[in-house]
Write a structure and sequence with these properties.
Radius of gyration: 23 Å
Strand content: 5-15%
CATH architecture of the largest domain: 3-Layer(aba) Sandwich
Distance between the termini: 36 Å
Strand order of the largest sheet: 3-2-1-4-5-6-7
Helix content: 40-55%
Structural class: alpha/beta
CATH class of the largest domain: Alpha Beta
Number of strands: 13
Shape: elongated
CATH topology of the largest domain: Rossmann fold
């Protein structure tokens, strides 16, 4: 019998972390194949090393290439760890390509963090896959209700938890200074002055508490991409502080779990790291300084008991999560993936029906068509044909000209994100 394999298709470092962690939870004995999509956010070697999950095989591919990929088709499970539109394009293309096969992979989708906005928008792009993982009872109830209302099988939703919740329970230590860790987010807050203001406030806390160590946990190096673009990295903003950074304020990289091992107070605006911290029992503060707003995502934590301001933290506040709220968010479960493993085993025991995404050419042709085109695929699930000479006179040339007018950085970005992938595609034809 051939070895059992689980393939994870990922389009960024964050989604690889989620997808690979899910794979280890639902199929711990399977070989792990990594399929990284060629995007602006394809994980770098440093990012992969920081995550720390080493696949058995790895390749870089495009969405359109996966349609005819026999290695993927031969896998037992395929985790679609991709943004919603890409997940829909994959389900559409693979559904057509795999129709009529005696066997195909069980498809698994879900979310890399808390679902605090565009719930229906993202959910409908995942509808029609075999398993949609919900990170909490709260999410599972919402997902099933939405699916039932539009005619999608609500049993495809399986309650679990974020797959990277774990680590040792929090215990204070006298062998290190009290450590406050701020979990940085690439797009919260937005804008140079807003981000500089947040950094200034963290520096002020460090000056007020010289006995504490204040860590700014960074997501990426300047120039590296992640799920969200970080336009104003703190590594550069620290040079713009009104006063030199105090010696007990430090910028750090590394695996989030390892940083939490030495954390006594986790502070963030709305990072998923807050759930990791709460799971371990680490005091956790969700900042209110910039408002409790849907735009910041911190509204999700309104009932957590962890809302606090920098002034509160200066005065010694160390919020603890409300146990009832935590339980509803999937925090503290002993084996949150048992139901997913059982469902996976049941599906794998018989012949799977064809993949049927909710968005079809008949139901939402205009919407689906645009998503497929952006992913290099036509309505029939085939790679888009390239018109000879299109590079010189068509939309691509227009994009390049606009980028050139807007500056070198923009031109470089277009070259990396648009031109280089196009050249690779042309070279294969």
């Amino acid at each position: 019998m051939p070895p059992r394999r689980i393939a994870v298709i990922a389009d960024s470092d964050t989604r690889w972390k989620w997808g690979a962690s899910v794979a280890r939870q639902i199929a711990p004995g399977h070989a792990l194949d990594a399929l990284f999509l060629r995007t602006r956010a394809t994980p770098t070697e440093r990012q992969l090393e920081e995550i720390g999950i080493v696949p058995d095989t790895r390749r870089e591919v495009t969405v359109a290439e996966l349609v005819d990929d026999e290695e993927l088709a031969a896998a037992d499970v395929a985790v679609l760890a991709t943004v919603g539109g890409t997940t829909l394009a994959l389900a559409h293309g693979l559904g057509i390509a795999w129709e009529g096969r005696e066997r195909r992979p069980v498809t698994v989708t879900g979310y890399v963090g808390v679902v605090y906005e565009k719930m229906v928008d993202g959910l409908m792009t995942r509808a029609g896959t075999d398993l949609v993982l919900a990170n909490s009872a709260y999410d599972a109830d919402r997902f099933r209700a939405a699916f039932a209302s539009v005619g999608v099988d609500p049993d495809s939703v399986v309650e679990c938890a974020l797959p990277f919740l774990g680590g040792e329970p929090y215990a204070p230590s006298t062998e290190r200074p009290f450590t406050l860790t701020f979990a940085v987010q690439p797009s919260v807050r937005k804008g140079r002055e807003a981000r500089l203001g947040l950094l200034e406030r963290a520096a002020a806390h460090a000056r007020r508490h010289p006995e504490r160590l204040v860590l700014m946990k960074l997501r990426s190096l300047p120039g590296e991409h992640t799920t969200h673009v970080e336009a104003d990295p703190y590594q550069l903003l620290v040079e713009r502080l009104a006063e030199p950074a105090p010696p007990n304020l430090r910028l750090v990289y590394g695996n989030m779990g390892e940083v939490l091992d030495r954390t006594d107070l986790l502070v963030t605006v709305s990072s998923t790291a807050a759930l990791e911290s709460m799971h371990r029992g680490i005091p956790t503060a969700i900042l209110t300084d910039f408002g409790v707003r849907e735009a910041h995502g911190n509204h999700y934590f309104v009932h957590s008991g962890c809302l606090a301001s920098w002034d509160d933290l200066d005065a010694g506040a160390a919020p603890r999560v409300d146990p009832a709220w935590a339980a509803r968010q999937g925090i503290g479960k002993s084996d949150p993936y048992a139901a997913a493993r059982a469902r996976l085993a049941a599906l794998g025991a018989g012949r799977l029906p064809a993949l049927r995404p909710y968005y079809s050419p008949r139901r939402a042709g205009a919407y689906l068509g645009g998503i497929l085109e952006r992913n290099g695929m036509d309505e029939k699930g085939r790679p888009l044909a390239l018109v000879p000479g299109a590079a010189g006179t068509g939309p691509l040339r227009t994009v390049i000209r606009r980028a050139a007018r807007s500056g070198a950085k923009s031109l470089y970005r277009v070259g990396r994100e648009r031109v280089a992938p196009a050249l690779r595609r042309w070279g294969r034809h």
